[in-house]
Amino acid sequence: MARNPGLTAATGERHDQGRLATRPDRGCQAWQGPADTPRSQSFRSDGLGLLAILPQRRLFKGWDLAAPRDAWTCSCNSIDRTMTIASAQDQTDRFMRRAVSARRVYAVSAESGLARAPSRRLRGRDVTLMWSEPDDARRWLAVQPGDARLQEIAIDELFTDMLPAFGHTQRLVGVDWAGEEKGEPEFEPADLAGMLRQELMESFLARVVMFGAVWTLGDVYGLVQVSSQSRPGHLAVPCWSDERQASQRIDGDWSEAVAMRIRMDDFVTKTLPGLAEIGTLVAPEHLPGPGAIEVEAADLRLRIGARRVTGLV
Question: Which whole-number Å values give the CA distances from 173 to 92, 122, 204, in the listed order?
Answer without folding.
Answer: 12, 12, 25
